[in-house]
Specification:
Length: about 260
C-alpha cells in the first residue's frame, strides 16, 4: 500500500510537520476532492478499483490517505533508526489506528458510545458476526454496520472496502465514521444497501457468479475461497451471498477481498 505519488507527498510532509492542523485537514480534503473528480488517483488501484474507492466516498478516501501516511512514515523511521528493518503488521496496524483516530476526531467523524447512538438513530442490532455488527430498521433502504478489521492492518481493511465496491457495486459500502466500542476494537461505521434475502445462494451459484468476474476456486478444499488474476476472494459461503428477492440473482453482502 504505497500512495507515494507527486500529489500526496506534500500531504505526508504536512502531517509530519503539523499533525492534523486545519491546514492539513484542508489539504487532505482537497486531495480527496481531486480523487472524486478524477484529477488524481492512488496508483495501486486500476480504473474499476478507483470507482470502488470513489463510491466508498470522502470519509474512506481521507482515512485511507492517513493510513497510507502512517505506514510510509513508520517504515521510513524504522529503516532510518538502528537498521530495524521493515515494521511488523502489528506495528503498522497500531500506528494506523492511532493516526486515523486523531484525524477522525479532528474531522468530527469519531463517534464514542456508538452502539446506543446507532440503535437510537438507525434501529436495533439485527446481527453480529466476527467482523460486523449490523443495525437495521424495517423499511429502510440500507443497513448500518460497525465493521472491525480482520485483516493484517487497518489500511488493508480500508482496501477491502474499495475492492468490495469494485467487484460488487450492488452492495457498495459507504464509510460514515469510526468508533471503538465496548469490545475495545477499532470499528469503521458504514452504510450498505439492504438486500431482502429470498434464500441463501448455492455453491454452484456462487461459482458461476465469481467466474463471471474472473475468479475460480483456489483448490484449498474449503470451497469458499477463490483466486483471480489480481485479487483473492475468501469467505464466500452462502451466509455471505444471498439470492436477492428482487433481482433473483446471487448478491454478495460481505466477504474477504484482498490483493494477491
Amino acid at each position: 500500500m504505497n500512495a507515494a505519488n507527486d500529489a500526496i507527498m506534500p500531504i505526508y510532509r504536512a502531517i509530519r510537520e503539523e499533525g492534523f492542523s486545519s491546514h492539513v485537514l484542508q489539504q487532505i480534503d482537497d486531495y480527496t476532492n481531486d480523487i472524486l473528480n478524477g484529477r488524481t488517483n492512488f496508483p495501486q488501484f486500476n480504473l474499476q478499483e478507483h470507482a470502488g474507492l470513489c463510491s466508498a466516498d470522502s470519509v474512506l478516501i481521507g482515512a485511507y490517505t492517513v493510513a497510507c501516511y502512517a505506514r510510509t512514515s513508520l517504515a521510513t523511521s524504522g529503516n532510518a533508526s538502528a537498521c530495524k528493518g521493515n515494521p511488523t503488521n502489528w506495528e503498522i496496524d497500531a500506528r494506523q489506528e492511532e493516526l486515523v483516530y486523531q484525524w477522525a476526531v479532528a474531522k468530527k467523524l469519531w463517534i464514542p458510545n456508538s452502539e446506543q447512538i446507532l440503535i437510537d438513530t438507525f434501529g436495533p442490532k439485527i446481527a453480529q458476526g466476527a467482523e460486523a455488527k449490523v443495525y437495521y430498521k424495517s423499511g429502510d433502504g440500507a443497513v448500518i454496520k460497525e465493521r472491525t478489521s480482520i485483516y493484517s492492518t487497518l489500511g488493508k481493511a480500508f482496501e477491502s472496502i474499495v475492492l468490495h465496491n469494485a467487484l460488487f457495486p450492488e452492495t457498495q459500502m459507504k464509510v460514515v465514521g469510526f468508533t471503538r466500542d465496548s469490545d475495545g476494537l477499532f470499528r469503521t461505521i458504514l452504510t450498505q444497501p439492504y438486500v431482502e434475502c429470498a434464500r441463501l445462494a448455492t455453491k454452484s451459484e456462487i461459482d458461476k457468479m465469481v467466474a463471471a468476474k474472473g475468479f475460480c476456486d483456489n483448490g484449498d478444499g474449503r470451497g469458499v475461497n477463490y483466486i483471480g488474476e489480481r485479487l483473492y476472494l475468501e469467505d464466500m459461503h452462502p451466509a455471505n451471498v444471498f439470492i436477492d428477492k428482487i433481482s433473483e440473482k446471487p448478491t454478495c453482502i460481505d466477504c474477504i477481498v484482498k490483493f494477491r
